Amino acid sequence: MKRILYYHPQSNFSRKIRILLAEKKLDYELKEVNLRNKPAEFLKISPIGKVPVFVEEDGTVIWDSTLIAEYLDETYPEPNFYPTHPQAKLECRKWEELADYLGDNIINLWILNLTNNLEPTFYRTKLETSISRLLPVFEQQLAKSKYLLGDEKWTVADVAALCSLGYYNLRLNEDWVLQYHNLKNWFNRLHDHESVKSTVPR
User: Is-contact 5 31, C-beta < 8 A?
Assistant: First the structure.
């Protein structure tokens, strides 16, 4: 059977996997999921009901973007997006988790806006404070190196952070580029990759 990626075109977590699949030059079929009316076929293979879900050629089903990313890197290691040394891989996973957490906060803030709950509630303040605390962490790291884990190459940590900020641009605004110059330069530089340009959410 053919590899399948169940996804949503605006999902930052789906985009993370699409970039990795493109970089690894793996053939697959895209199946868009209506997240407001999830089909029974999708819920049958994804008990958590979230995208992305990856189905391998042998029928293996994997959900959660980090699990999919780790599987792809271990199964198709060229080019690799996780370091092989245990300590470096741990550092990479930490930054990936931080980037995904940023993405979760951005998604939840947008959903709050979508419900027209525009009053400065406790939950809104909590999300905005979290995002404002996280962005300088990435900015400071990128003041020291070309990528989040050094100058040599981008990793899944960069991919995850890129996708979260791309979602920020799509759903909220692009004001962060005025304040975080290292982050802006890194973000723009990563868009030199065709895998990044071809997956920009519309």
Answer: yes
User: What is the number of helices (H) and of strands (E) in the chain?
Assistant: 9, 4
DSSP letter at 58 equals T
Taking alpha carbons only, the member of 56, 74, 68, 63 closest to residue 17 is: 68
CA angle 121, 124, 128 (to 5 degrees): 140
The Cα–Cα gap between 199 and 15 comes to 6
Sequence-distant contacts of 185-193: CB under 8 A, at least 24 apart: 185/142, 186/142, 186/146, 186/147, 186/158, 187/162, 189/146, 190/154, 190/158, 190/162, 193/19, 193/23
Structure tokens that stand for 29 in this block: 């079929």
Are 11 and 166 spatial neighbours (Cβ–Cβ below 8 Å)? no
Report the distance separating Cα 91 and Cα 82, nearest Å.
Answer: 10
CA pair distance 164, 13, nearest whole angstrom: 8
Convert the pLDDT of each residue in 105-121 to its tens digit. Answer: 999 999 887 776 666 78
Q: Which one, of 194, 36, 34, 193, lies nearest residue 111 by Cα?
A: 36
The pLDDT score that the predictor gives to residue 114 is 73
